[in-house]
Amino acid sequence: MFDDKRKETLDEKNKEIRKKWDKLHFDSQQGRAGEDPYPTAVGSLRTPLYATKSYAYSSLTELLKNHYNYSRTENPTLYALDQKLATLHGGEAAVSVASGMAAVHLACSSILQQRVERIRPKKIRALLPQSNPETVPNVIIHNNQYTGVYRLLTKIYSQFGVMTKIVDMRNLIELSDAIDENTKLVFVETPSNPNLDVLDIQGCADLIHEVDGKCIVDNTFASPALQKPLNLGADLVVESLTKFVNGHGDTLGGVIIGQKNELQNIRYFWLETQGAVMHPFSAWLILRGCRTLSLRMDRHCSNAMKTAEFLEAHPKVAKVIYPGLKSHPNHALAKKQMKGFGGMIGFELETIEKCYKFIDLLKLIKVGVSLGDTTSLIEYTSVMTGIDLASWEKRRMNMSDTHFRFSLGLEDPDDIIKDLDQALDQI
Asked: What order of strands is seen across the sheet that includes strand 254-258?
């Protein structure tokens, strides 16, 4: 809504500020990027909470010169968060949205759906995928995929005329065979949820780029403190900010990071149209969480490593899945593309009966969905995250009936292990 000359001036100013942030190391970026300097909060050490829907000006001329008009599109508190997350990921731009699933939906929409403007209704029909079955677009996902994304792509996008192919993306030959001239998108979640499979980001990106498709990487389990997919060939990165980036379990949020042109289309068309807007208070809380991200991730990782080693050595644990263990089939790849192995562990017990008994015996560790909190959270996967999946869908996703997804919090690792040990001893 503001004029081109004003926009060019703002772009040049932002580029100079970004150069300053890019010179800092990650631990400094997470505290300063997006907030130091902050253009509309003179003298404030912390970014203020702008709880407003509209921005009023003295004249139309002033309105057209300014950056903010309506908070569905832009808000000063969200602006700070977007700048920080773009910097931490090494991307040109970022758009923060209402949740991680909103980020996935908007990112996929920008790639899979055409932007239709000023076309008469009859002509729109020719643009719909169903009008030409020979050119129906498809997207490829891993066979162990977060259930929310799985539902979106297989249940909802299929109604839009988009086909979803499900393959074992750990096998790049299988992925290559699945890609054809109609493949628009490869969606890579690594480490995967819930099985903690590690996928080759660069390998997946290279394959889809051969047919001019795009690679989206869900980086939720790693965060930019441990993994930067844009540096490994990804076109867009999505994250649930609800999890490790915020880290305090008190708000929802998601983000999309990538090139400026793509993010402008997402912000000014898809977000503006679909309205999955993050509340300014959520942005303010997530900004707070960002400032300690690397410190928390170090503790999440060390707690997970020590706990995984304990579980792997315990006689009543049938299987442990953690990228930091040498027993993980993709340990070498995780070591190559991640700075640390994360705060998530998967493990399995021998029987369903033992699983039900074990989880009810835990005391310090809390039973609950979600992850990335200061508090350790555990879920019995098949009856929590996987509750709405059919048996055949669970089998296709390699979801074991005795699998636990365990998010390591920031408690003392000895206390976490003690709690696990007393519960295991009683089953």
From this structure: 93-97, 254-258, 236-240, 214-218, 183-189, 138-142, 163-167
